[in-house]
Amino acid sequence: MVVGILIAIIYTLGSVVDLYMIKLGGSPRGIDLTSSWFFGIDLLSWELFVVLPMWLLVILIAIIAIWIGYSMLTTPAPVPLEAIYCLSQRYRTIGRGTSC
Question: pTM for this one?
């Protein structure tokens, strides 16, 4: 679960945030929302079409890994087979005075 969270954070910082900072030149500028630029990134840039689908795939895999890790963390341990056998023997011999 922790590895999935770290991968999601590191990949986001290394891809989408890095592309955003490169397009802005590392410093905030005035934003004109009426032009073809959205927060400093051209919406028809080839870099955007390469980075975003890959980012979505990595985030999807990371979310699945986080979900599996969370499920493994919160699922209780199974009952040992010896306990199941002992209980079945105990119910068979009720009143006979034997126990496991």
Answer: 0.61
